[in-house]
Structure formats: structure tokens, C-alpha cells
UniProtKB/TrEMBL annotation:
<keyword id="KW-0812">Transmembrane</keyword>
<keyword id="KW-1133">Transmembrane helix</keyword>
<feature type="domain" description="DUF4350">
    <location>
        <begin position="43"/>
        <end position="267"/>
    </location>
</feature>
<feature type="transmembrane region" description="Helical">
    <location>
        <begin position="6"/>
        <end position="27"/>
    </location>
</feature>
<dbReference type="InterPro" id="IPR025646">
    <property type="entry name" value="DUF4350"/>
</dbReference>
<keyword id="KW-0472">Membrane</keyword>
<protein>
    <recommendedName>
        <fullName>DUF4350 domain-containing protein</fullName>
    </recommendedName>
</protein>
<feature type="region of interest" description="Disordered">
    <location>
        <begin position="149"/>
        <end position="180"/>
    </location>
</feature>
<dbReference type="Pfam" id="PF14258">
    <property type="entry name" value="DUF4350"/>
</dbReference>
<feature type="transmembrane region" description="Helical">
    <location>
        <begin position="290"/>
        <end position="314"/>
    </location>
</feature>
Length: 431
């Protein structure tokens, strides 16, 4: 039968098992089996390739699952490649702290997510607005007014009208799916040209608004100040590099054209260490049920359930008061028991004579055991003879007390307490 006690025990065991499994899950690497859009991802939309390319070129490429902080060395670059929008909206404080870090000489490269753009890397096929909404991420980093727009530049794709199929992240190879190549100027002051492959369609470009900027990667076919797909925004002693399309770093097209060269130059132009942020990809919360408590609705529901459980336990619990007096049952020791039995026997008419008979029999049994007789109660003369061979004086005392007890028991007179006590002492001295 299910009782309140067994129910509470069952709930406690379930919570212990759940917490144990959660801890074991946290101890493992949160790689999501390589299907995520992060540096663990090996599918078309993942960034595992760019991490390995950076490390292969001798650059210190690191993953960081913990939230980014201003305590990192200013000589490194923090890469925010397509961070999840709902994480950015929910936890903007960590990004705001990085603004002061950049002013001190830090460097951030950010590629805002483009989930609303219908490319082969997304499943949404509806027509969207020409303006890509990324003010939350860029505004948090202090780039108010900076936005992303479709460039509207003709590409080298022959079929512009046919809708490109989306890129299934599991079944299709990374080499499948249409892409467009664009000739771009790398850092216009240097005059170097790079061929960049991007998902088909009009490429995304950066609109700086009123912010001071320096174009890094610009489409050759665009007018001056337009068609910029990567730009640097100076901030104090550091800079924030904005890349319009995060698919530039994706596994599917990283090996095409000069994408790997552009990716490495954007991430680490001077060969400094690069930290790929995975907190805003959800890796710090993936598989962690305790992270659900940071969601207001879930936290409110959890608090309500805990409060209801506490109220129910309080109402059904036994109220504790002053201790109830419980009388202790008397426990007698052996001496009290013997004394009580003696008093009971002495109250009888023939009590002392009974004690004397029991004493005589007990003396014979004890001496018989000491002398090695096989019978339980040997005859007095046999005991006296055997005892005389060992200790004559003791044998004489034994024979004397046995004769006196027998004579006294043969008389019908009442035995006094003094006489009975003397006989008991004499019998005890023979043992």
C-alpha cells in the first residue's frame, strides 16, 4: 500500500538518480554528436573545420563553454559565430562586459545569425524582409545603428530563378548544394583580391550607419562604401570585426575558393590566440536540466510546485510539542530477584526446611561435579570417601554438615532462622 512515507522516499530516490545522471552528463563533453552549429559540429552548418584549420596553421584555437568575461587577456580574439538569438536576448550582460575589454585592447569577431535568410543552410523558405534583424547582438556590443542588408549584387550563378534546396544537416554531403563565388577586395589599402564562396543568392552586406568603420572584405562589383561583407569597427585600443554572413566559416564551403584564407585572416590577422565562444551556442546549458530554472516561466512553475509540496508536507506532518512523559518499566537485577524469592519462600510454613533440603542436594551436585562423578547426585559416603583421598579435613567437615542437616530434617520442629543460617554457612565452606 502506498503511504506518505513510501511516496516521499520514492520521490527522493528519483531526484537522487536524476541529479546523478545530470552530473554524469555534465562531466562529458557537450558535443551533441557533432550535429550542432558550433565548433564541435561536423555537418554542413558546423564550424569544426575552421577550428581545425586555425590550429593546423599554428594558431592557438580554443573552445570556451563558460560565459565570456572581461578577465581574458586582451591579446586574444573572441569569436562569436552565429550565436543563438534567444541566448543573446536572455543573457546580454556577458556581452556588455566585453565592451570595456575591447576598449582596453581586446578583439571580437562577430557573425550575427541569419536564420531568417532563406539559404541552403536553413529550412525556412518564406520570403523575408530585405533587412536582417541583428540589432540585439550588435547593439549589445555597442554597435548601435549597424545593420545587415542583402547586397543585391549579381552573382555568378546561372539559374537565379530556381529555388535552391535547403541543406539537410545530416544526409547531404558538405560538397552538395549551390554556391556563388564573388571576387572581393581584401583590405582595400593593400589591393589584394580574394575569391569568396557564399550560399547562392544576394550576399549579405554591412550597413555601418553613423559608426566609424574600416572595410576588410568588399565585393568588387559594388560601389564604394557598399558591398562590404566584413568590416572592422575600432573601439578604444581594440576592435570589433563584423562578418555579415556566418556561413563564410561553415564546413560546407570553407574549403571552396579562398574562404579558408579569409577566415584565418579575419580570426587571427597577427597569429594571436582565438577563443571560440560556445556559451551562446547553448553548450553550457545543453544536457543540463538545472539551466531550465533560468527561464522565468519554468522557474515560477518550479517555485510554485515546491511551495505547494512544502505546504502539503506542513499540513500533513505531526506537530511537534513538548516531550510526552513515558513511564519506564522497572527492571530488577538478579539480587532483587533472589531477595524476592527468598522472602516468598520464608513466608511459607516449611520454607526454611525446603531451603535446607535444596542446599544439601546442591552441595552434593557441586562436589560430585568437582570430583568427577558421572551421576548427578552421588551418595554422601562416596563423596566423603573421594574427598578424603584429596583433603581429609574438608571430607570430615562435609560428613559433619551432611549428618547435621539430615538429623535436623528428621526432626519435625520448626527450623529457626539462626539455625538455618549456621547450617548454610557450614555447607558453603565445604565447596
Amino acid at each position: 500500500m502506498l503511504s506518505a512515507r513510501s511516496l516521499i522516499i520514492s520521490i527522493g530516490l528519483i531526484m537522487v538518480v536524476a541529479l546523478s545522471l545530470s552530473v554524469l552528463g555534465l562531466l562529458q563533453e557537450p558535443d551533441s554528436d557533432g550535429v550542432g552549429r558550433d565548433t564541435y559540429g561536423v555537418r554542413a552548418h558546423g564550424y569544426r573545420g575552421v577550428l581545425e584549420v586555425v590550429r593546423e596553421l599554428g594558431v592557438d584555437g580554443q573552445r570556451r563553454i563558460a560565459p565570456p568575461t572581461a578577465e581574458l587577456p586582451v591579446g586574444m580574439t573572441i569569436a562569436l559565430l552565429s550565436p543563438a538569438s534567444h541566448f543573446v536576448e536572455r543573457e546580454p550582460a556577458y556581452l556588455s562586459q566585453l565592451v570595456d575589454w575591447v576598449n582596453q585592447g581586446g578583439r571580437i569577431i562577430v557573425a550575427p545569425p541569419t536564420a531568417d535568410r532563406p539559404t541552403r543552410f536553413t529550412r525556412r523558405r518564406e520570403e523575408k524582409s530585405k533587412s536582417i534583424d541583428a540589432p540585439t547582438l550588435l547593439g549589445t556590443l555597442g554597435l548601435e545603428g549597424v545593420s545587415l542588408r542583402d547586397g543585391g549584387v549579381a552573382s555568378s550563378s546561372e539559374d537565379k530563378e530556381e529555388e535552391a534546396p535547403f541543406f539537410p544537416p545530416v544526409r547531404e554531403s558538405r560538397s552538395q548544394g549551390p554556391t556563388d563565388t564573388h571576387w572581393c577586395q581584401w583590405n582595400a589599402a593593400e589591393g589584394e583580391r580574394l575569391e569568396i564562396a557564399l550560399p547562392n543568392g544576394a550576399p549579405l552586406t554591412i550597413e555601418p550607419g553613423q559608426a566609424e568603420w574600416r572595410p576588410l572584405l568588399q565585393l568588387e562589383s559594388a560601389d564604394d562604401g557598399a558591398g562590404v561583407i566584413a568590416a572592422s569597427f575600432p573601439r578604444g585600443a581594440g576592435e570589433i570585426v563584423v562578418v555579415a554572413d556566418p556561413d563564410l566559416f561553415a564546413n560546407a564551403i570553407l574549403r571552396q575558393s579562398d574562404n579558408s584564407i579569409a577566415a584565418v585572416r579575419l580570426l587571427s590577422p597577427a597569429g594571436g590566440p582565438v577563443v571560440f565562444d560556445e556559451h551562446y551556442h547553448g553548450l553550457s546549458s545543453r544536457g543540463n536540466p538545472l539551466y531550465l530554472l533560468t527561464i522565468p516561466g519554468v522557474a515560477a512553475l518550479t517555485i510554485g510546485l515546491l511551495a505547494a509540496t512544502a505546504l502539503w508536507a506542513w499540513r500533513t506532518a505531526i506537530a511537534l510539542g513538548p516531550p510526552v512523559f513515558t513511564p519506564q518499566k522497572p527492571r530488577r537485577d538478579l539480587r532483587e530477584y533472589v531477595d524476592a524469592m527468598s522472602r516468598l519462600l520464608l513466608k511459607g510454613r516449611d520454607g526454611r526446611r525446603y531451603l535446607l533440603r535444596e542446599l544439601r542436594q546442591g552441595t552434593l551436585e557441586e562436589l560430585g561435579r568437582q570430583l568427577g562423578f558421572s551421576v548427578l547426585t552421588p551418595a554422601p559416603d562416596r563423596v566423603a570417601a573421594s574427598l578424603a583421598r584429596r583433603e581429609l579435613s574438608r571430607a570430615e567437615a562435609f560428613s559433619s554438615i551432611i549428618n547435621d542437616i539430615d538429623q535436623r530434617l528428621a526432626v519435625a520442629d520448626r527450623l529457626s532462622a539462626t539455625e538455618a543460617t549456621q547450617l548454610m554457612k557450614r555447607a558453603n565452606s565445604c565447596l
